[in-house]
Amino acid sequence: SQQGEEDPQALSIQEGENATMNCSYKTSINNLQWYRQNSGRGLVHLILIRSNEREKHSGRLRVTLDTSKKSSSLLITASRAADTASYFCATDGGGGSNYKLTFGKGTLLTVNP
Amino acid sequence: SQTIHQWPATLVQPVGSPLSLECTVEGTSNPNLYWYRQAAGRGLQLLFYSVGIGQISSEVPQNLSASRPQDRQFILSSKKLLLSDSGFYLCAWSYGQGNQPQHFGDGTRLSIL
Predict the structure, then answer these.
(1) Which residues contact A38 (CB under 8 A, 6 or more apart)?
(2) Burial call B50-62: b when 16+ CB within 10 Å, e when fewer
(3) What is the pLDDT of residues A43-65, one digit of tens each?
(4) Chain A residue closest to B46 (CA)?
(5) Beta-carbon contacts below 8 Å between A and B
(6) Which residues on chain A are in Cβ contact (under 8 Å) with B59?
């Protein structure tokens, strides 16, 4: 079953606007990761947030994590046409050294120039 | 720096034919290796992962198999392809410790006719 579920499934915005994507998950986690996938390419790791962290920044990316609600959000500020891609959250399912990640179905972000 | 290579980029195969997809990693030792399949508009399904040479864990029973003959080589095989094996196959690696980001190849688009 899907551990992470992104919301919305698709998002279309204008260049310069902010884009917010949400992820919900079901079980406990050690960390949650966000990835980006350009059409027809492999996934690229964006950011990892640990279960004891509430917020993390990387450039124009801001990730929040609320373990009490089992949810995370990815905010992309001042979006650019080049940000057009699918964005996935992935969780590790908690426990000890867990090598496996479970990915959601992703949010397709379209940034219109 | 570490790099991951997957080939071929695209493959068209008839039903019932064999399959061999190869993935190699450079610039790191003893990585964890992963094979995923991605159906159109969906998230990633973990097929196999390996934490060392000759060690393969299968996540989904099916007519696919994986092997790791060398530390940085991961092979996905099938003796007889089914129509349902069509999809986008992605190889990834991560460092040996748990809870690490995964780094993806550019994938193989497999079409079964």
Answers:
(1) A44, A84, A85
(2) bbeeeebeeeeee
(3) 999 999 999 999 999 999 999 99
(4) A102
(5) 60
(6) 100
